[in-house]
Amino acid sequence: MDERIRRYARLAIRAGIHLQQGQELVISSPVECAPFTRLLAAEAFACGAGDVTVHWTDEAVTRLRYDHLPVEAFQTVPSWLRELNNGSARRGAAHLSISAGNPEAMKGVDPKKPSAYIAASHRECKEFYDALDMGRNQWCILSVPTQAWADKVFPGDSRAVERLWDAILKAVRADSEDPVAAWEQHRRSFQRRTAWLNGAGLDRLHFQNGLGTDITVGLPEGYRFTGGGDRTVGGVDFFPNMPTEEIFCTPDKNRVDGVVYSALPLNYQGTLIDRFHLRFQGGVVTEAHAETGGDALNALLETDEGARRLGELALIPKQSPLSEMGILFYNTLFDENAACHFALGKGFPECIENGLTMTPEQLEQKGMNDSATHVDFMFGTGDLCVTGFDKKGNAVPVFRDGGWAE
Amino acid sequence: MDERIRRYARLAIRAGIHLQQGQELVISSPVECAPFTRLLAAEAFACGAGDVTVHWTDEAVTRLRYDHLPVEAFQTVPSWLRELNNGSARRGAAHLSISAGNPEAMKGVDPKKPSAYIAASHRECKEFYDALDMGRNQWCILSVPTQAWADKVFPGDSRAVERLWDAILKAVRADSEDPVAAWEQHRRSFQRRTAWLNGAGLDRLHFQNGLGTDITVGLPEGYRFTGGGDRTVGGVDFFPNMPTEEIFCTPDKNRVDGVVYSALPLNYQGTLIDRFHLRFQGGVVTEAHAETGGDALNALLETDEGARRLGELALIPKQSPLSEMGILFYNTLFDENAACHFALGKGFPECIENGLTMTPEQLEQKGMNDSATHVDFMFGTGDLCVTGFDKKGNAVPVFRDGGWAE
Asked: At residue B162, what are phi and psi to the nearest 5 degrees?
């Protein structure tokens, strides 16, 4: 076993999840990732885990269910899984999830089925999602290679798995001597940048580039740009995503106007949606067109009312390591950290001052969007220009030529 | 994929489980067995399964929990697993379980922990176990190779997995042209033999061989030797074990007297118990001695009161295919079908006339043993002599020189 991989497992438990003495850990893992998941479990027990439960998943079996069962079968969550998710959340468990899907595993599946399942899952596992979304329990999503995924990223290369490992370990800084320290430094650099944005008194951001994007996105009163890490309401620092290069905020769901053009394909539930644009008016998508995967785009927009509004805006300079690697991972966790993006769907309460202690009604009043879904799509390009404006219309340059203006 | 393996998956679903149109299937599978489990799931859907749920398991994670958590952690079953087992049993799901453990995976584990867990599991998942034990839902245990298991059976052989596949496929008759038909014939040959035993009006069996075994085992009134297959109360034929070569009965728990010597080592929760004997008086073990693994033997006997009494006697002639292969599989499913054996622990209601419709009290009155555990141990040898006696003391030869006497 590569020493970097052991360091990565250690990093995931100690910095990503930041597991506390006696705390329970739930790991969602594809069956193919068993060797790494065992390392995570061993590291968790070495940190004094109260218990470790692995929720094993398998795309091939999921695919068989999608192919053979009617949409009704996906309108509810199996009772045992509801109990696993909500029960562990109630006990304060941290949740680590391994994202390692074959980007084509769900190709051709009727998109109504996964959409129904996502909606059911958020409805029936509300205690679980609330515990993560409202900052009660730590969570972390990270990746390890699987053969099918590696073959998609590096087609025809017999060393595909090895190359994907190299790329992931580099992206998560596990190739350094002391990755836990490297992530602490990473956290501090984000803190400096978010402090600047949050002190700038912005009312809205305007995005423009050569693809045709020309859109203004309002920011809620008391907006909080966040990035590089998170903190539970109990004060435990953790990293929800590894890697993470983005500084993000939750938009005002009612003040989005203009048009945005995709810069990279979006892999949604196994279908590639490519060369698409969305037009917004008063916060709502009023026009959507994709040259490829239009049906999947429409299914996404029809998940629920909130799926037609924005829940995230994220800034990533073209100088980030992932941008520089120039690899298309076909996995949001990596690709979203390579380019500026928006997300359709649920917003982030932690991106509004005191948002984590607000009721859903208060959050709505602040302009935070709600939805069962949250899907990122990339629009950032090397020529992207982002300008902030305060309430009086004074301009603050944020991005110039795809990188930070300051 | 070897065509025999596809036939095996087909056999498991169509004959082993005999899945009914619209019926739900739960598969318990080690993560290493994913390729075969996917074949099973595909075959189940091809048979019209109402749903397929895989309960993935991993010995390495289980082992970490045993090593790091106190015995109290194993005195209860996680609520999600209780819901998975009992909930699916209530819905009438069939249950297929893959037994493919590394025989040494639990070596050195404090035997109190797995014992506590087995007891908790039978207590808290009672609906699940009752549905199987009382013949409401079909179930089937079968095996596929894993690397660790194959390395134990064929040490130092680079073709170990392939050789274990060959042995398993031969043992389950999946190497024939039409395995489903081969199993129908197998069922009929068992029916002839059990009809003879059940018509012989036996009161008890006496076992004797050169190792020192000299023991008399009483049979309950209305005893029913069974073997080669089972039938649910709803009339669905299935095979609970693949392979199966045994004809078995449930003893009268109060009428076991004498001594039995083990003929093969017993792998109990990862510990090998070898060269042991048990002395019975009035049905209860009054003396137990093992040259190896005595602590594990004692832990087994202390599981509960019923663990000190017999729940099964099984007859397998030395001419059976598994006996002839002469491979020590370190797995009860195979090794129990290679030699005559007894089991400590829970008896079989289906081995008493109308037993499946009796209350626990009625079964106890008939002499059926009850326990949270059921552990087979082999005592059959090439010189084993088994003689039946009716109530008047008339002798009926059953086994001579390790094979059927008739």
From this structure: -60, -45
Q: Are strands A94-98 and A139-142 parallel, antiparallel or unpaired?
A: parallel
Interface contact A54, partner B, CB < 8 A: yes
State the nearest Cα–Cα gap between B96 and chain A, in angstroms: 15
Nearest Cα residue to B316 out of B193, B173, B140, B223: B193
Between residues B356 and B167, the one the model is more confident about: B167
Interface check for B63 against chain A (CB to CB < 8 A): the answer is no
Mean pLDDT computed over every residue of chain B: 95
Verify whether the Cβ–Cβ distance B65 to A51 is below 8 Å: yes
Query: Per DSSP, which regions of B228-304 are E strands?
Result: 230-231, 237-238, 247-249, 256-261, 266-268, 271-281, 284-292
If residue A173 lies in a helix (H) or strand (E), which one and from where to where? none
What pLDDT does A168 receive?
A: 96
Nearest chain A Cα distance for residue B346, angstroms: 28
pTM for this model (two decimals): 0.85
Which of the residues A39, A56, A71 would you substitute to probe the B interface, choosing the one with the greatest number of B C-beta atoms within 10 Å? A56
Do A289 and A260 form a contact (C-beta atoms < 8 A)?
A: no
DSSP B29-55: EEGGGHHHHHHHHHHHHHTT-SEEEEE
Mean pLDDT in chain A? Answer: 95
Residue of A41, A51, A83 lying closest to B80 (CB–CB): A83
Show residues of chain B in contact with A56, CB under 8 Å: 31, 54, 56, 58
Confidence at B152, pLDDT banded by 50, 70, 90:
very high
Mean pLDDT of B364-388: 95
The shortest CB-CB distance from B73 to any of A41, A51, A56 is to A51
B54 CB neighbours in chain A (<8 A) are 56, 58, 61
- Tens of pLDDT, residue by residue over A272-301, are 899 999 999 999 999 999 999 999 999 999
Tell me which residue of A320, A349, A348, A350 sits closest to A335, measured CA to CA. A320
Tens-digit pLDDT profile for residues A141-193: 999 999 999 999 999 999 999 999 999 999 998 988 899 999 998 999 899 99
Residues from chain B that touch A52, judged by Cβ atoms under 8 A, are 61, 64-65
